[in-house]
Design brief:
262 residues; alpha/beta; eight-stranded parallel β-barrel; two-stranded antiparallel ribbon; globular; amino-acid biosynthesis; indole-3-glycerol-phosphate synthase; Indole-3-glycerol_P_synth; Indole-3-glycerol_P_synth_dom
Length: 262
């Protein structure tokens, strides 16, 4: 059983537990459900955008604890002040140490920037839940979803006024997963089955294979300004970065320093 298999098995249990506590109808009546969406597409297409999607991430299955000494509101507010184009906040508890509370605290501190709920989405309930948390963008991971499920979850996301980020790892996932409900395509440079690889080869290999009308972002294994410049040269508009910043004592300063080099 791969790490991804273990995550999805636990996620199925977690979703069932959450449904027993609060119904989807109740979620639609609370929190940020009525909030207008902040568009990731608009942010990334802005000529003055840094393109950097800065992530609040406490730990990972491969690295363990990355940073336990910071708060989501301080880090994400600092990211926005430094020039982030978008925020990504982990809400998976068991494997990434995230929580809904982390997302809500970041949302309250940053009402106007696009925010991705970073989790393993397998059920419509999670989409409704994300909307109530104030998410603007839903992550759908091709590695753990069938093309039909991507369509179904993507349609609900669109119907609720949010945007969909489709995460792929290779050409096969791209070809079977693209559909009319996808707003942004993200190439994850890290293999989710073993959380290995430390380069952006996947993004470089897929750059010309992603349709030209798709906004594309590169995810993970990015740490240098030169890497971002290279990815920009082959058409990437967004760059999702978490550990590069989070492993430092002052994540917002690490982001500001990187943007200065760009």
């Amino acid at each position: 059983m791969t790490i991804l298999d273990k995550i999805i098995a636990r996620k199925q249990e977690e979703v069932a537990e959450r449904k027993a506590l609060i119904s989807a109808k109740e979620l639609e009546m609370k929190g940020y459900f009525a909030k207008t969406t902040n568009s990731l597409k608009t942010s990334l297409l802005n000529p003055s955008s840094s393109g950097i999607i800065s992530e609040f991430k406490r730990k990972s299955p491969s690295k363990g604890i990355i940073n336990a000494n910071v708060t989501p509101e301080d880090v994400t507010f600092g990211y926005v002040q430094a020039g982030a184009a978008c925020l990504s906040v982990l809400t998976d508890i068991d494997f990434f140490g995230g929580s809904d509370d982390d997302f809500l605290r970041a949302r309250k501190a940053n009402p106007s920037i696009p925010m991705i709920r970073k989790d393993f989405m397998i059920d419509e309930y999670q989409i409704i839940e994300a909307k109530s948390l104030g998410a603007d963008v839903i992550l759908l991971i091709a590695a753990n979803l069938s093309p039909q499920r991507i369509k179904e979850l993507g349609k609900l996301t669109k119907d609720l006024g949010m945007e969909t980020l489709l995460e792929i790892h290779d050409e096969e996932e791209l070809n079977r997963s693209l559909c009319e409900y996808i707003d942004v395509v993200g190439v994850n440079n890290r293999n989710l089955k073993n959380f290995s690889e430390q380069n952006v080869n996947a993004s470089l290999e897929l750059a010309e294979k992603i349709p030209a009308n798709c906004i594309k972002i590169s995810e993970s294994c990015i740490s240098q300004a030169e890497t971002i410049k290279l990815l920009k040269s082959v058409g990437y508009r967004g760059f999702l970065m978490g550990e590069t910043f989070m492993k430092t004592e002052n994540p917002p300063k690490a982001l500001a320093d990187l943007i200065a080099q760009l």
